[in-house]
Amino acid sequence: MLVPLYEAVHERLEVGRGTRLLGLGCGAGLALLLAASRGASVTGVDSGARERLALARERLRPGHAARATARIIEGSPRDAAPAPAEPAYNLLTVFEPAGCATGDIEGLEERLAAATPLTERGTPVVLVGWGPPERCSTSSVLRVATKLADPLRGGGGLRRARRDDLEEAAQRCGLRPEGSGRVACPFGYADMDSAMRGMLSSGLFDAAVEATDQAQVDKELTEALHPHRRADGTVWMPNVFRYLIARTP
């Protein structure tokens, strides 16, 4: 669903041959695959679900010249440090949207602190956040996940994304904001079953399942998706995401 965002960033930064990209929170590796198809040398690191990392490795398996140097690492950014004979990274991306859940900005800053020493001086760093809730239909659906995972918070651990979240996080990490942009990324599904599978496969509902059970999550997720079901049975949720480009010292 975030392909328009990935492509907008890659185009703006002219990702291609000579790009040595480190992707934090790489998940299933689609953004890395798109960068590799442009000729970039890519490394992805994530501490999340092994199933998604397995998919990333499958997508980036050797056999294609553009993917010959691709690496997927399970662990922390420090585990992705280049070997002594290898050059430092010259592009750092964090495509996981931040700024709408309690604590995610702090987690972003921790990962940046570990990753920026692995880059060249003046390396572009890409951070991504959700747009305003009124322009992100999926916000109401994600509220189900955080409400069930952490019921004591009442609001489910969600907070309203602030306009300067990404800039403030970058500055606290010693980065220099340089530019930003907004990209429309609608979430569209052929039917309600596809929407359910798509949302659950994101991993955002895993904690809710552990805190309650699958049946409860399925019930409340179905109810949250219902307003976005159109007359033809498709499910459509318009969203806007914002990206920030900053530079390392």
UniProtKB/TrEMBL annotation:
GO terms for molecular function: methyltransferase activity. Gene3D superfamilies: Vaccinia Virus protein VP39. Keywords: Methyltransferase, Transferase. InterPro entries: SAM-dependent_MTases_sf. One of its GO terms (biological process) is methylation. This is Methyltransferase type 11.
